[in-house]
Amino acid sequence: MLRDKSLRDQLNEALKDAMRARDAAALGTIRLILAKLKEVDIASRTEANREGVADDKILSMMQGMIKQRNESIALYDKGGRQDLVDKEKAEIVVIERFLPQQMDEAAVQAAVNEAIAAAGAKSIKDMGGVMAALKTRYAGQMDFAKASAVVKKTLAG
Fold first, then answer.
1. What is the pLDDT of residue 3?
2. Which residues span the domain enclosing 16?
3. Scanning 29, 81, 94, 107, which has its CA 20 to 30 A from the CA of 70?
4. Cα 102 from chain centre
């Protein structure tokens, strides 16, 4: 996807493209993303701020959507519902189209080391600050559950 447009614009364009192409799977998933985005926008509104949430929040929201689908896949798999597993996997593919390239393990470790050094973290007690820095800088680029394990392991020595 192009990076000069906001993520919100990219999603709206993709919705129109999916309608034109009559791509029901993509259309349904993009509508789910936009509905969730509207929900997040409304929840974050204040008197002073009527604008929608920023791209980094949208990326975090979409990662959460992927996480939910992965959890559903595990449950559907146990229940022998391959049709639902396939549907969830198809939705993940559509959502991932809007996320930046995911970092590999070496890049995650390097980012964790850099965040630990920048925060001056010495023990597990400092983990919150390190995770906050990672979420700010690498929204949408890493799986923060895995990154959390790497931070914990690194700080534990």
1. 46
2. 7-96
3. 107
4. 10
